[in-house]
Amino acid sequence: MAAKIVHMLPVVKKQVKQHVKVDDPGPLGFLLGIPSTKTGVTTVVGLGALVGLDGTALQQEAEDTLLHLPAGIRLSGVAYTSEKPPTPDYVSSQCLRFVQAGLKDVIVTNEWIVQHIQVDPTTESEGDAQLSKVFVYDSASGSATTVDVREVEDSILPSTTLLLRLQGQLSLEFEYNPGEDDDMFKAIEEGFSNLQEKIATPATIFHLMDSNVLLRQHETVDATSLPLSYQDPCHRLLQFVARPDTEELPKKGGSKDSKGRSSTQDVLSMQLLFQQTGLEAIAMLPSCVPLIHWEKRNFHNVCLPVSINATAYIHRDDPVSRVPQLMVEAVSRQLRGMETCLNMHFQGGQFCVPTAYHFLAPGMPHLLTAVYPSSLLDDKLEWYRKDLHQRFSLPTDRPLLRRQNAYVFPEDQHGDIYLTNTHEGLPPSGVKGDVTVVQGRYTYHHYMQDRMNDSGWGCAYRSLQTICSWFNLQGYTDRPVPTHREIQQALVDVGDKPLKFVGSRKWIGSIEVSTCLNQLLGVTSRIMCVNSGADLGGKGRELALHFQTQGTPIMIGGGVLAHTILGVDFSDQTGQIKFLVLDPHYEGGEDLSVIQGKGWCGWKSVDFWDKTTFYNLCLPQRPDII
Amino acid sequence: MRTVSRTRILPVSTQLGIILSVPEATPFTAVLKFAAEEFRVPPDTSAIITNDGIGINPAQTAGNVFLKHGSELRIIPRDRVGC
């Protein structure tokens, strides 16, 4: 038998490292993998870390992890630390303990991928000195063998898999009598159980949107009239989707994808349908004469809409027959997630509507899903997000899983009114120093937008709008970008301006920008002052540090002009510096080629700034929230 | 009994600062006005920031500001930009 290989994304190493505790060896978490039916090779895409304090309740942790993953990503194995060296016998004995802890039920395959990390509690540092080895453990025979790990690029995921997306509407009805909570929980359990059964029947159809393809589980007869067989590789499904004529959408980004991604992820959108006629539908009906039982009483009937919004990953070469299988698995997971959410947040006779959100956090190669209750705002769910941040090794100093952070599928991105990240795709500045730029996304706000003629007075307002868009897009606020009037009103509210300021065309500057950011968004800013524009040449390090640590756009005001600084290219060897400037004085339309070509967004030297005047800069600071 | 706070406010350019004593409940907008008067600059083209350069939202009492940011502050000229 050929030596088994396992593919692993580089991000897994980083995630595992984050959770290694040298002085507390034990299980770290579950290895998450996507198997390929064709090659039999699993790609490990991440670690689902344990968040419980003592490593017990492994089964529950496994289920909790699974509920937040798209279908197609399964628990492929376990990673753990140990003082002992990695030998097949020791690995087998460790895995036996995991089997006894009940993991055999959650790791669906018999072949577990096991990562053994040897730690030495006597060493002070936790560097790469740890020895890590990967095995394949056969849970049926109890034997472990070493396996070849091939590190693959993070970008292998979008290029070798399809992202399946499923939307559909179900509903759950149950009786609720205040005071009889136990009966109600039982009714909810039964209701979800019925939905689970319903999904798995042959009457469930998955319709590939914008096509004539209908897929069903366990189909052996190729019943479709299309030239498509259930054994075909699933990437063929892409050909059947009717593409809309691509209109002249505002051009996004430059000619080159600045991140150098080789390909974007292909998405197949599917719709959940139920067959109403035919043998399969008839099979769903009870096979007996109905008896009618009439009972007259008062009771509360709760009718809960269950909006299915699920995702799954599948290898491009996997057969079409696997698609409906994965869709059923996806719905099943989501129903379990929704049931948990509903039960968790039931309070005093109030039911929430569980809603699923998907997130693609920076650094994560795959989507995460969370089901949030409609009844609670993001502020009340911080404890839940904290758990998820830990489980999936996400940074804990910035919001990534708030509703505002939800992933927008490419097909849902309508022709946006505003251009995003207009600096992407620009050629280099020529300084060849260290380039640090704004992190994340912002929208470009400038004169004449929103049918607002603010030419000659609104530039600082527009720069402030760009900054507010950054805080909105990064999930720090769900407050939309403020209008000129709202900005003016905020300044009146804090007592900085008289009442007649609202509706005027009065100029503002960086101090007003920082005051508004605080008043409207709760954001604190640092003010930097320079006596002359020429002095900005000496601020390279400080600005670079700002973009590295905060990554927020900077508003700069001086000599009657306001601009936004999005980055610096600074060489500490030559002292040369260039500033990435976004100019709010632009009055044209959202045409990226003009904006980049004519320098409305571009690299400027220090001569761009006026030597004869002082400048104030507003450097917004990220609030420490998740 | 009225509690009073003392704050030292320094301009960016010269070394000479001023010391203001104000009741803690004083709105910070008034502190700015007092300070600007002392330095003989128009209050609406001046602003007060902390020693570390943090911008101060004037919609708070003096006591609150001193509690959060300390009592060593700076007065700077505002930029006013438009065209």
List the helices and strands and how they pair.
The complex is a heterodimer of chains A (626) and B (83).
Chain A lengths: L4 E4 L1 H10 L7 E9 L6 E8 L8 H10 L6 E9 L5 H13 L10 E8 L12 E8 L4 E4 L1 E4 L4 H5 E16 L4 H19 L4 E5 L5 E2 L50 E9 L4 H4 L17 E16 L6 H23 L9 E6 L8 E6 L8 H10 L42 E4 L21 H15 L10 H10 L16 H12 L3 E6 L9 H10 L4 E5 L2 E10 L6 E6 L9 H6 L3 E5 L9 E6 L6
Parallel strand pairs in A: 1-3, 1-8, 4-5, 9-12
Antiparallel strand pairs in A: 2-3, 2-4, 5-6, 6-7, 9-13, 10-11, 10-12, 14-15, 16-19, 17-22, 18-19, 18-22, 19-20, 20-21
Helix pairs in contact in A: 5-7, 9-11
Chain B lengths: L3 E8 L6 E6 L4 H12 L6 E5 L11 H8 L2 E6 L6
Descriptive report:
The complex is a heterodimer of chains A (626) and B (83). Chain A contains 13 helices and 22 strands. Chain A starts with a strand and ends in a 6-residue tail after the last strand. By secondary structure, chain A is of the alpha+beta class. Chain A has helices at residues 10-19, 58-67, 88-100, 156-160, 181-199, 279-282, 322-344, 382-391, 459-473, 484-493, 510-521, 540-549, 592-597; strands at residues 5-8, 27-35, 42-49, 74-82, 111-118, 131-138, 143-146, 148-151, 161-176, 204-208, 214-215, 266-274, 300-315, 354-359, 368-373, 434-437, 525-530, 554-558, 561-570, 577-582, 601-605, 615-620. Chain B is 24% helix and 30% strand. In chain B, β1 (4-11) and β2 (18-23) form a beta hairpin. Chain B starts with a strand and ends in a 6-residue tail after the last strand. Chain B is built from 2 helices and 4 strands. In chain B, strands 2-1-4-3 form a 4-stranded mixed sheet. Classes of the chains: A alpha+beta (626), B alpha+beta (83). The A-B interface holds A 456-460, 493-496, 505, 507-512, 514-515, 518-519, 524-529, 557-562, 614-616, 618 and B 12, 27, 29, 47, 49, 52-55, 57-59, 76-83. Chain A: One of its GO terms (molecular function) is deUFMylase activity. Chain A: It comes from Branchiostoma floridae (Florida lancelet). Chain A: Residues 434-618 form the UFSP1/2/DUB catalytic domain. Chain A: Residues 191-413 form the UFSP2 second domain.
